[in-house]
Specification:
- The chain is an all-alpha fold and 185 residues long.
- 62% of the residues lie in helices and 0% in strands.
Length: 185
């Protein structure tokens, strides 16, 4: 399953290569913004949205500050999630595939179970109950923990690895992206 997650993440690069193009900063940023909006629509908080998009939370906040359209999309997605939230009976919402993906990625990057569960929007007790009731989920969590890099093990609580990619900076005007055209993703 973890290999399929890795393969899924490389599909865009392969499709771009087939088209004879390299990754573009604009396209990469828009794809990550879309993942953040999707996570917000599913009820994730800011840290979970950033984790789902694969960016630091600070960058997510910068996008919202500099891009009013993105801020409006995030706000609308949160309103959508709120309007479809289960009634306030105190029960935790059932985990979604996106929540499980965020959880696995965070654990794989070196996060402890409690902080990974918080990123995925689930209480720690709900994570423990899920692991007990669903052996496949428990096996995925154990596999994610085993596949941690040695660097992630030493780092401990950090949920992000420093992964750098070369991307083409589009020749679009700087004001479309909300300021400086040089950004780290």
């Amino acid at each position: 399953m973890l290999a399929r997650i890795d393969a899924q993440q490389g599909i865009d690069d392969e499709l771009l290569a087939a088209l004879g193009r390299g990754p573009s900063l604009r396209e990469e940023t828009l794809a990550r913004m879309a993942e953040a909006v999707r996570a917000a629509a599913l009820g994730f908080g800011p840290a979970g949205c950033a984790a789902a998009a694969g960016v630091p939370e600070r960058l997510l906040h910068n996008w919202q500050d500099r891009n009013p359209s993105f801020a409006a999309a995030m706000s609308g997605a949160r309103a959508l999630a709120y309007s479809h939230a289960p009634e306030g009976n105190g029960a935790a919402r059932p985990p979604t595939p996106v929540a499980l993906l965020v959880l696995l990625q965070a654990i794989r990057a070196g996060a402890q179970h409690a902080s990974a569960a918080a990123l995925a929007g689930m209480p720690r007790t709900a994570l423990y109950r899920l692991r007990k009731e669903r052996p496949k989920v428990n096996a995925l969590i154990l596999a994610a923990r085993r596949s941690r890099s040695k660097r992630a093990e030493r780092r401990g609580g950090s949920t992000y690895e420093h992964r750098y990619r070369l991307v083409r900076v589009d020749d679009a005007p700087a004001n479309q992206q909300g300021g400086s055209r040089q950004r780290q993703i």
